[in-house]
Specification:
Layout (H helix, E strand, L loop, with lengths): L2 H17 L1 H4 L1 H12 L3 H25 L5 H21 L3 H18 L1 H11 L4 H29 L2 H13 L1 H8 L29 H4 L3 H22 L1 H7 L4 H28 L2 H17 L7 H15 L2 H13 L4 H8 L6 H15 L3 H18 L15
Helix pairs in contact: 1-6, 1-7, 1-8, 3-8, 4-6, 4-7, 4-18, 4-19, 5-6, 5-9, 5-10, 6-7, 7-8, 8-9, 8-14, 8-17, 12-17, 12-19, 12-20, 13-14, 14-16, 14-17, 15-16, 15-17, 15-20, 17-18, 19-20
Amino acid sequence: MFYGWKITLLGSAGNFLLQGSTIYIMNAFIEPLNALYGWTRADISTIMFFAALFGAFSMPVFSSLALRIPLRLIMSAGALLGGLCAIGMGITDNLYVFGLLFILTWISGQAFGGVSANILINKWFSRFQGRAFGICNIGNSLAGAVLPFLLMISIQYTNVKLTWILYGIIILCFVPVCLFLIVEKPSDMGLHADNLANGKKEIRSEVFIPLKTVLQYPEIYYIGFTFGFMLMSSSSVLSQLKLRFTDVGIESFTAMALMCLTAFFCAIAKYLWGWLCDKICPVLVTRILVLFHIGALFLLFIPANLAVILIFTVCFGLAAGGSWAVMPSITAYLFGKERFICTYRAVSPFVILKALGFLIVGFSYSFFGSYDAAYLIFIVILSCCFLLTLLLKPLTTQNTLTVA
């Protein structure tokens, strides 16, 4: 196996254990935490809002650190912090301490997986970059397909506290894996990007561009707002999707299985959308993704029965799973591999927008007794985002957009 794929799988593991799990696992914990401590859905949604907020702020920070500190150390530190914080969440019974630890866990997800893994993959792949981004980010969605169900069973057979502690111990096991497995770039092993046997070793140096220069390009804002709002919709809907299903009369275990099924299709989608970015213009892929996402949200307004819910799980899963795969692909496409870190750190802060979604769904339920108002808001916002994508002009040749 080409060593780059091993790097990709490790990044996917980081996304599975921390980056994606922080969104999905609350489907398993919200109701037990409410029963144990009296914490409400609005309380948990507010914590997730602040966690997503600080997590988004951490993305450009880790992007900048990657220019100075080896990614091996950044990702190892992320696994260490995430594991310790998960154990701490199992120990504390204080809402504010729990919230602080959850915020740190969310931040650690960007260090162990997230933006750090994307930066690493950009160094190892060129021709197959879209697929590599997709496989790496599959971990986000596989977390939703597997972890909530396993954690719910663990809670039922043990308790909330022990489940958090066991989860944290598993994360800590990846600290030595990161230390010994991660290699910064192909040339460090005498290899070249994509492992192309008939090519010369491809050694690309990262081009440093001042942030103020990058921010002069409107494409940064078009990409940032579009994917920031798509992530807002997908993350917030998925974070309480099991509760949505139980609210419309689905039994608890079945509702959790349907939520996990949605996440499973998210995982499939990451590879499919990444593969599509390798085949056709990522700008066109972005437009298709936004329209598909809007259409999937409309399904939530059809009177609920099992057939409609199953169609929704497939469509929304395929729509929600694409953002993390397509966002780095279109950034690399428009600005070039060598400028990826400097441009991606300008795009990544827009992920902060997804924090708003947790407040919107939480307070939609508090004020109206359902999530429908939140879903309608998401549809309107994403319709505006589609108009933004029309301002992105497909390029005739890759990487022709020059940054001075």
